[in-house]
Amino acid sequence: MLLVGDLVHCPSLGELQILRHHLIVVDPQGRISYIAPAQLLESAKVIEAASEPVTPLPRGSFLVPSFCDLHLHAPQFLYQGTGLHLPLMEWLDAYAYKAEEILDADPALAERVYKRLAVRLIESGTGSVLFFGTIKSETNLILARVMQAAGVRAFVGKLSMDISSRPTYVEKSAEDSLSAARRFIDDCYSQVAHLPAHERLIQPVITPRFIPTCSDKLLSGLGALAAERSVTVQSHMAESHDEVGWVKQERKQDDIDIFEEAGLLTTRTVQAHCTFLDSPSLERMQKSGAAVAHCPLSNSYFSQESFRLREALQRGVKVGLGTDIAGGYSIDIMNSMRQAVIVSRMREGTRLLASGSAEEDQEAMPVSIDWKESLYLATRGGAHALGLSGGVFSIGASFDAQCIHIRDLTTGQGIGALDFFDDAPQIADEWDIDEEVIEKWWSLGDGRNRYAMWVQGREVTRRD
Question: How many helices (H) and strands (E) does the chain have?
């Protein structure tokens, strides 16, 4: 596949690159094999030697990497947008466990929910997702099959929990839970074993729900299994005041201590929330190589603290964004980006008001982030946390991308919620994508601007 147009990406935190009129070549395995300005002689030779024609992007559009969602509870999509009035531990009993149990008991409903979830993800430009599933392996295999068919890159976690406040929704013992986790890993890999390696979009994930639902025996067993099979690990850590207090009272340790001792804090680990991690704990996260799924919306509902995002980034902790459906009500990572900036700005305001003097204000490191940094988190940051090569346009990276249509250059009209007021007759030849236009899309854009999306080089959607 050969495409020509404007490319936008964030190779590093805070860095926004606009690559105007570039040729990008995607090989049969879905990886970028060539990228350079289209007007170069070398690019002309590549085009001439190609066995297929060049496809120009629509004028007034650009490519940006597809989004990564590092934390989404697939079964909770069943009741997305409701039930957000309770504290975390009460909410789990009243809504989360109930919905997960319902889907585990009804495979047909699970398939309907997950197919609709795939549609919504693609509409939102999300190409890679780290999923929390349910206890029952078969339900998680449905999730994996549906996402593979839809073309969404899916890391699927079968829940492991041998402790529960809901007697009907729990595994019988640590041994039973470990055996089920091992079988799920094998079954998940087997489900795509017939496909070429580059077409296998699903991976199993070891998923202890969180410390209050897992015995020490189960956690240490999962840590050993993760090391044996070299698979991704995910959980919730230091999420809310009541959860942190429960762990401290019952286990006499902090979350991070327990996960580390169990071998569940590694370079393949993604921990959601982490709002109660202090500076020494963030240092430990960086040393372990574990990543954080920052979920600003659900944190606002269920945590009494805001995640120390700037401090984590300053220390080199890997961070990406998550929607945390249904603890957060929006499946769109664009909203997570905006919320991440808003929360950080509120933290910065609190810091300034609490500081002692103007001199201290100037010397201290601001804790806010800007829109460019949030775009990095939604793309390259998330991909890096998952061990993926995508999230950036470079040779060898997976071509995980979305085409964003900003403006009809014939009429001068913006697409969707975007409006422009310059002289329409002149724009066809003079108008270019710039940082101001991209920021406008970041602030106001929605699904109407999404013209097409690719995952591993495969086109998964295109607007007429």
Answer: 18, 16
Q: Range with the lowest mean pLDDT among 132-136, 249-253, 265-269?
A: 249-253
Query: Domain 2-65+392-462: what homologous superfamily?
Result: Urease, subunit C, domain 1 (2.30.40.10)
The residues facing 292 across adjacent strands are 271, 319
pTM equals 0.95
pLDDT digits (tens, 9 = 90+) for 180-203: 999 999 999 999 999 999 999 999
Number of other residues whose CB lies within 10 A of the CB of residue 81: 12
Q: Cα separation of 155 and 72, whole Å?
A: 10
- Indicate where the chain has its CATH 2.30.40.10 domain(s): 2-65+392-462
The b/e string for 278-307 (b: 16+ C-beta within 10 A; e otherwise) is eeebbbbbeebebbbbbbbbbbbbbbebbb
Is residue 240's pLDDT more than 80? yes
Each residue's pLDDT tens digit, 354-368: 876 555 555 578 999
Spatial separation of the C-alpha atoms in residues 248 and 301, rounded to whole Å: 22
Topology annotation, domain 67-385: TIM Barrel (3.20.20)
Two tokens, residue 276: 């109660």
- pLDDT of 332 higher than 60: yes
pLDDT at res. 93? 84
Q: Which of 344, 416, 406 is CA-nearest to residue 373?
A: 344
Q: Answer yes or no: are the C-beta atoms of 24 and 2 closer than 8 Å.
A: yes
Tens digit of each residue's pLDDT (9 = 90 or more) over 284-303: 999 999 999 999 999 999 88
Alpha-carbon gap, residue 405 to 426, rounded angstroms: 19
Helix 137-150 vs helix 107-123: angle between axes, to the nearest 10 degrees?
40
Which regions of the chain carry the CATH code 3.20.20.140? 67-385
> What would the pLDDT profile of 135-150 be if each residue is shown by its tens digit?
999 999 999 999 999 9
Residues 6+ apart with CB under 8 A from 429: none
For the chain, the average pLDDT equals 94
* Element holding 15 (H helix, E strand): none
CA–CA distances in Å: residue 265 to residues 157, 236, 255, 293, 439: 16, 12, 11, 14, 36
Q: Give alpha helix (H) positions in 355-386.
A: 358-363, 371-376, 382-385
Q: How does DSSP classify residue 379?
A: I
Rounded CA-CA distance 160/218 in Å is 8
CA dihedral 309, 313, 315, 316 (to 10 degrees): 140
Contact 382, 321 (CB under 8 A): yes
Output the 3-class SS for 183-221. Answer: HHHHHHHHHCCCCCHHHCCEEEEEEECCHHHCCHHHHHH
